[in-house]
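User: Please predict the structure of the protein below. I'd like the answer in structure-token form so I can feed it into my own downstream comparison script.

Assistant: Understood. Taking the following sequence of 350 residues as input:
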Amino acid sequence: MTDCKFLFSNGVISSSPDVPAVATLLQSDPGAYTTTRTHSDGACILFWERHLRRLSNSARILLSRSPRLLFKPEKSEISFPPSFVESSAWDSTVKSLVKDSVDQVLPIALREAKRKEGEELAITTLVSGNAQKVRGIESVIGADSVAEVLDIYVHLAGYVPPAFGRPESAARLAVVGRGRRVAEAKYSDWVRLRKPLERLRPSLVTELLLSNDGDHLLEGCLTNFFVVCRRKGDGENAYHYEVQTAPIADGVLPGIIRQLVLDACLSKGIPVQELAPSWSERELWQEAFITNSLRILQHVEKIQFPHSWESLEHKALEDISWEEKQFGINPGRITSIIQNEVMNKADLEG
């Protein structure tokens, strides 16, 4: 994979070696962000309109519920005029600023990055507020005022999508932490907040899962989480299957691929329920998979769960004993059907 990186920051384009890793960028500035990638050798951006809508929605949620997650820290508390929070210009302005920024840097990155065969570009866009500029805002808020207080960053780097279905592409998960605050928004401070969970990551685990009660599984640090669960039917010894994933109301990110999975289940007649999978019912789990906009859909080989949830945060990794749920090294039938449907949507929608 190429190590060439590009950063577009308020009209200025930088390239390697002056560009930090995307995690460094996200830890440096608060704000709402989204990550996606190019598709079909850079021909389009995956589900770009959906990402723009969620990004603008995340910014508005942070503005109204937790401004410190959107704006750079100030010595004094930030105070916003009501018209600023309620401005109808927010959504359209955020989308326009981000789209214009990506349109400027992406063609340059595609032209100059020496990508290998099968390599795409990961695209992370961060919308960060400048509190100092808010103080000069008048009572009447329009698109120009909203644009004035926002800084836009676009980070691009080479990314090779994992090949679905191969044993070496299977995910290995461990449940190690509690759910996020303001989970319905995607914000950069989560990159910093999740770092302490890394000390509890077992060897070979590729994603960390979150739970608030030590039973119901919410999401991963970087992904949404699904299981294919066996349920008893009406007849004797009859079973049927349903896909389960935690509802947004439980505190999970409304992931772009998450919604596409729900849509795929409906279109293919696969029963689906927005219900947080329960570890105590894991014997009914037949398949599991995780989703995000880089990996799209990744089947799960194994899940580890701490034997003692209550004392987890006070223990070192070597002192934790784990229970395990093992799946096959290859994706199951339902997982494969859903993955194929989502990728068909990617080809149609981009």
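That's the full token string. The mean pLDDT is 90.
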